[in-house]
Structures are given as C-alpha cells and as structure tokens.
Amino acid sequence: MEAPFANRQEAGLRLAAALREYAGREGVIVLGLPRGGVLVAQALAQELCLPLDVFMVRKLGLPGFEELALGAIASGGVRVLNDEIVAGFPGAAELIESVAAREFLELQRRESLYRHDHPPRQLQGHVVIVVDDGLATGASMRAAVAALRCHRCARIIVAIPVAPTDTCRDLRPQTDELICLIESDNFRSVGEFYEDFTQVEDDEVRRLLLCR
Length: 212
Hints:
alpha/beta; globular
C-alpha cells in the first residue's frame, strides 16, 4: 500500500493548503519542532510566505524503551508528564528527574546549535502555527503548547500531517485550532505514513533555519 506522503516536504505543502487563509498575514509565525517537524514547517512557511522559527521540545523517553514517552520538556522549563504511564512505574519521580536533566542539556545544546546566535522571535500577541511531522502520544506537542501559553500568544494552531485519533481528541481542547490531515484509528508509527522518512540530522535543521 502506498504511503499518503512522499516525504516531509510534501506533507508541509499539503498542510499549507489547509492553512491558506493565513498566507502572508502579518503577525503569524510558523514554528517547527525538531528535528523532522522543521522540514515540514519550512515547506509550509515558504508556501504561505510566513516567517519560520524553531521551538525546542525534548521527549522524556523511558530508558531502554525510548519510544515510550514519560512526558516531555520544552523551552522555558515547561514539563508535561504522561500520567497514565508514569503511574505504572514505581520510583518514576526519581527516574523522570534523571531523564529530564539529561534531556534539558540536549535541549540547550540544540537550541544553541540551531539558532546561529539569533534570538528567538517575539511570540507575544502573535498567531503561531506549531508544526511536527506527526504525533504518536502527543507528549512533545502538549509540552510545546503549554510552553507557548506562557508566551501569551494570540492564537496557537497545531498543524500535523498524521496522528492517532485519540491523540488528536485529547490534544484539541488544549489548542485554539488543530489541523491534522490524517487521523488514524489504526496507528502504529508516524513513519508508516511516509514513503521517505529518513532521519533528519542537525546540519539539515541548521541549514533550513539559516535560510529562513
């Protein structure tokens, strides 16, 4: 069966078509979640003639089972936990502190690397379109939305190519608008919806942001 998206760039263009009303509008910023979300966001921002920036989020993966998210952290020290998963692990509090400390250092490293010494864009009062290449549990996006609320954005729009139906249902009330091109009841992984889901490296993210 052919995957719905050829690559992240195509996914970004298809999201742009769904967000055409924001094309060229003053006070709108596109934010990509690294790494893969930046490629989707870049294609969307370029198509709609909107400014692009990166918003830093790190998933708190369970050691040994990193795809299982205990939660996530975002710029500004915001932390969101997956209560259902955390409740199933005795001693989870100590584990989370250890994982969060490590991931915070990686978040800082990447933010410094990606920004090229450029300060983050001013978000207060702006409409922000937050983009990723897909969601599974949604922990990273929930952390991003919570952190963006602290910036007093005028409106927070989450734009994603694909996610499980229940993740969209749980996330939608936390946003001002959620655009998801494919809400799947039989979701296994984000990658299965792409023909090309090659891992994105830091250098590619740097290059795209340098050209923004």
